[in-house]
TrEMBL record, chain A:
Keywords: Membrane, Transmembrane, Transmembrane helix. The chain crosses the membrane at residues 20-41, 47-69, 90-111, 117-140. It comes from the Bacteria. This is DUF4395 family protein. The lineage of its organism: Bacteria, Bacillati, Actinomycetota, Actinomycetes, Geodermatophilales. Residues 13-142 form the DUF4395 domain.
C-alpha cells in the first residue's frame, strides 16, 4: 500500500551545500539586524527568490559551494531531493519581503522581527539540518484546507 | 548599529539555541501513547482512524504507518530505511500515507509534522508514535522486539 512517487521530483542536491548556504544566509541576516540595512535584506531576498523560483541549481550560495568548496571536499556521500529546501527558500523569501517592507516604510521593528524569524529558521537549519520552512508546510495545509474538516476543529 | 536589531538578534539567537536543543532531544524520538494527553482515548482514536485508512495491524507482527508530505527531506530517507528493514524482517509491515490527501485523518491524529510514524503490534495496540526521522537505534530496537530479523510470520 503506497502512494506513487512524484516522477518530476528527481532533481537532487548536495546536503553539504544546503548547510553552507544556511550558514551564509544566517551571517547575512545577522548583518541586516546589526545595520538595519534594507538594501542588504533586499540582496538576501533576491538570493531566496532565485533559489525558490529558478531552482537551487541557480541559487547564489549553492553556486559558491559548487565552485569553491565542493571540489575540495570530493563527491557527496548522499544527496537529497530539491523540493523541500526549495520550498523553504520560498518561505524565507516571504519573511524577507515582509522585513523589507518594514525597513522601507519606516517600520524598523517590523523589519527586524521578520528578519529575526528568518534568522531562527536559517540557524536551526545550519546547526541541526532541521528545515523549519518544510515543517510549516503541513501546518499550513491543515489550516487552509479546513472547509472539509466537518465537526473536528483542528 | 540598530538598537531594535540588536535586541531582535539576541532573542533570535536564544530561540535558535533552544530550538536546536529541542531538535536534538526530541526529533524522531518514539513517544509512548500512554504518556501523551488522552491516554486510552488516544489509543482508540488512533486505531479507528488508521483502520479507516484500510490499515489492518493484524496482518503483521509490527505495522509502521508513515505520514509524509512532498516538502519533507527526512520522509524519503525514512521510507527507504523502513523498506530496507522489511527485506530482512518478514513480520514488519510498512504503510505509507500521503498526508496532504488525508487531511481529515491528519487532524484527527494531530499529525503536525512529517514524517510522523505510528507503531502498532499485531493486537492493534499503539506502541508509540514519532515525528521527524526516527533514530536508527530506537527503530531497530522496536523492530527487534516485535518483528525480529528472519522472524516468523
Amino acid at each position: 500500500m503506497t502512494i506513487p512517487a512524484r516522477p518530476a521530483d528527481a532533481r537532487q542536491v548536495d546536503p553539504r551545500g544546503l548547510r553552507l548556504a544556511a550558514w551564509l544566509t544566517s551571517a547575512v541576516l545577522v548583518a541586516v539586524l546589526l545595520t538595519g540595512s534594507g538594501v542588504l535584506l533586499a540582496v538576501q531576498l533576491a538570493v531566496f527568490a532565485v533559489g525558490a523560483l529558478a531552482g537551487l541549481r541557480y541559487a547564489p550560495y549553492g553556486l559558491l559551494f559548487r565552485v569553491l568548496v565542493a571540489p575540495r571536499l570530493g563527491p557527496p556521500t548522499e544527496r537529497e531531493a530539491e523540493g523541500p529546501p526549495r520550498f523553504a527558500q520560498a518561505v524565507g523569501a516571504g519573511f524577507a519581503l515582509v522585513g523589507l517592507v518594514g525597513y522601507a516604510t519606516g517600520l524598523p521593528v517590523l523589519g527586524a522581527v521578520a528578519t529575526g524569524a528568518a534568522l531562527v529558521a536559517a540557524l536551526l537549519n545550519a546547526t541541526t539540518g532541521f528545515c523549519l520552512g518544510c515543517e510549516v508546510y503541513l501546518l499550513a495545509r491543515r489550516a487552509t484546507a479546513s472547509r472539509s474538516a466537518g465537526p473536528h476543529p483542528a | 548599529m540598530s538598537g531594535v536589531g540588536v535586541v531582535v538578534l539576541g532573542v533570535a539567537l536564544l530561540v535558535s539555541a533552544l530550538g536546536a536543543l529541542w531538535v536534538r532531544a526530541r526529533d524522531g524520538a518514539v513517544r509512548a501513547p500512554m504518556s501523551s494527553v488522552g491516554g486510552q482515548g488516544a489509543q482508540v482514536t488512533t486505531q479507528s482512524v488508521l483502520a479507516g485508512l484500510g490499515i489492518d495491524p493484524g496482518a503483521a507482527d509490527l505495522t509502521v504507518v508513515q505520514f509524509s508530505t512532498a516538502f519533507c527531506a527526512p520522509c524519503r530517507q525514512t521510507r527507504a530505511r523502513l523498506q530496507q528493514m522489511q527485506t530482512s524482517r518478514p513480520g514488519l509491515a510498512y504503510v505509507h500515507v500521503d498526508a496532504e490527501s488525508h487531511l481529515d485523518e491528519v487532524r484527527r491524529l494531530d499529525v503536525r509534522r512529517t514524517p510522523t510514524l505510528f507503531y502498532l503490534d499485531r493486537a492493534g495496540t499503539l506502541l508509540g508514535r514519532s515525528s521527524g526521522a526516527p533514530r536508527p537505534a530506537e527503530l531497530e530496537a522496536l523492530a527487534d522486539a516485535h518483528a525480529p530479523v528472519g522472524g516468523g510470520r
